[in-house]
User: Fold Phosphonate ABC transporter ATP-binding protein from Pelovirga terrestris.
Amino acid sequence: MLTLKRLTKRYKTGDLALQEVTLDIPQGQVVGLIGPSGAGKSTLIRCINRLVEPTAGTVQLKELNLTSLSQTALRRARRHMGMIFQEYALVERLTVMENVLSGQLGYVSFWRSLLRRFPTPAVQQAFAVLDRVGLLDHVDKRADALSGGQRQRVGIARALLQNPDLLLVDEPTASLDPKTSRQIMRLITEICAERQLAAIINIHDVALAQLFVQRIIGLRQGQVVYDGAPDGLTAEVLTDIYGAEDWSATIRKEPVEEPPVAEEEEPLPEKKLAVAR
Assistant:
């Protein structure tokens, strides 16, 4: 589904961020990308959708060679790659619904998006994805009034409104508390299973990655030094990825039974919605 061949990124400073990374990620697989700061994790994600231009190598999404596309063709191709950011990348003064509908910007004309006149099917789909991420009662709330976990849910809903084949997720839990981090990771992996979406999740929390993803890729100095099952992350492997340390408290030794998930916050009183598009 997604194939990277000898993907390389060298910056103008001479720093080599990625060194001939070769990966094949099938449809529906959720991959955790781990490694120390500066290992190239964010660069890898951004080279896939060409927010950062690779220096060499190829990125192929299904039948499309993304690295050879013109800017116009790339804009169309980006519809199929939903991006979820660490810092949410929401427009603070806009409502939850308006932020989610921005996921349709690759499908509607400039004037319709400027006037916020989205097609009725897109609005209906936005309601559906907001229901799925647990924010249906917050559609008219401004983004700057949300908690961190709620903001990340808006970002997930916005990405889903693109109807993507692939999710690129950059440190989705870095700013969240442990409970909310689990809720967000569970939500992402459940949605990927429901929709048969592939996902690459850049994540610093090794134990959290082990708990939720199907495959771990470890980067060090821009190179893949581990590619395998979460249970394969032994102390020796983690030393290869991060360097020498006592990893005994980091490695998850047995499955954790997850309790039923409650909402982070009590929902606001239900409001009468006025969405005229």
